[in-house]
Design a protein that fits this description.
By secondary structure, the protein is mainly α. The chain is 63% helix and 0% strand. The protein is built from eight helices and no strands. The protein has helices at 6-14, 16-25, 37-59, 67-86, 95-110, 124-146, 149-152, 162-180. The longest helix is centred in the first third of the chain and has 23 residues, at 37-59. It starts with 5 loop residues before the first helix and ends in a 16-residue tail after the last helix. Mean pLDDT is 89; it is low at 184-190 and 192-196.
C-alpha cells in the first residue's frame, strides 16, 4: 500500500470524479482514491515547467540577459552540442523533443528532494513512458528522414550479413525501452501523510 503524500490527498479528496472519469476512458474500474503519487507529481512537474517557460519568456533579453536566461542558454547549448554530436548538422530539427525530455526528467528527479514531494521517476511506469516515447520518436524520425532505407539499415554493412544482423538489430532496438526503464530506488516521503 502506497503512502499518500499531501498533494495526492488533495487530488483524491477534491478531484476523485475526474480521476475516475480518466480511469473509465482506459477501461479501469472506479477507485475511491484514484490518484497515485507518481501521476499527481507528473502534473506538478509539467505545471512547474510551464510556469518556468512563461517566466523565462517574459524575461528574455538579447541586450541584457539575466542569470535565469543564461542558465537556460547553457542548457540549450548542452542539448545543441549533444544533438550535433549524436546526429550531425540535422540535430537541431530534433532539439524540441530532446530538450523536453531532458527538462522533464531533470525536474522529475529533482522534485524528489523538495520536502513533502516525491520523484515521479521512482515509478517504473514513468520511466517506461519516457523510454517508449523516445523509442517511437526516433524510429518515426528515422523513417521520415530516410524512408524505406531506414529498414535497410537493420541489415548491416554488407548484404551477406543480413540474415544474422536483422534479428540482432531488432532485438537491440526492442531492448532499448526495457534498458531505459530503470527499477526505482524507493525513498519514503519526508512528511507524514495519511495512509491510503
Amino acid at each position: 500500500m502506497e503512502t499518500e503524500i499531501w498533494i495526492t490527498k488533495l487530488f483524491n479528496d477534491h478531484l476523485a470524479g475526474l480521476g475516475n472519469s480518466i480511469l473509465g476512458i482506459v477501461g479501469a474500474h472506479p477507485d475511491p482514491r484514484p490518484w497515485a503519487n507518481f501521476v499527481v507529481m507528473q502534473f506538478v512537474v509539467v505545471l512547474f515547467l510551464m510556469v518556468l517557460a512563461a517566466v523565462l519568456r517574459l524575461r528574455l533579453s538579447a541586450g541584457r540577459p539575466g542569470g535565469f536566461q543564461q542558465a537556460f542558454e547553457l542548457i540549450y547549448k548542452f542539448v545543441d552540442d549533444q544533438a550535433e554530436d549524436q546526429i550531425g548538422h540535422d540535430g537541431r530539427r530534433y532539439m524540441g523533443f530532446f530538450g523536453t525530455i531532458l527538462l522533464f526528467i531533470l525536474a522529475a528527479n529533482l522534485i524528489g528532494i523538495v520536502p513533502c514531494f516525491e520523484s515521479p521517476t521512482q515509478n517504473p511506469s514513468v520511466t517506461a513512458g519516457c523510454a517508449l516515447a523516445t523509442f517511437i520518436y526516433y524510429n518515426l524520425a528515422g523513417i521520415q528522414a530516410n524512408g524505406l532505407k531506414y529498414a535497410a539499415s537493420f541489415a548491416g554493412p554488407v548484404w551477406w550479413l543480413a540474415p544474422m544482423m536483422v534479428p540482432i538489430e531488432i532485438i537491440s532496438h526492442m531492448a532499448r525501452p526495457l534498458s531505459l526503464t530503470s527499477s526505482p530506488i524507493v525513498f519514503m516521503p519526508t512528511c507524514s501523510p495519511a495512509r491510503r
